[in-house]
Amino acid sequence: MLLIVSVLIVIAVLMQPSKQQDALSALSGGAQDLFGKQKARGFEAFMQKVTIVLGVLFFAFALALAYVSSH
Length: 71
What we know:
The protein is mainly alpha-helical. It is built from four helices and no strands. The chain is elongated, with a radius of gyration of 17 Å.
């Protein structure tokens, strides 16, 4: 199950739209994005929620696996 969730996390992260416009933004530290933040909508918001849920599931399964393997 942990393997399936980890593969789904990778897929979800790769499906998220890029927020980086150009290489200059990466070099400047993204200062323009600090003041121009907008709330995610539509597909982007859905993918953010999916990624968060999968991350929580991954963490829970990893803790459960560690607990089971120690006992």
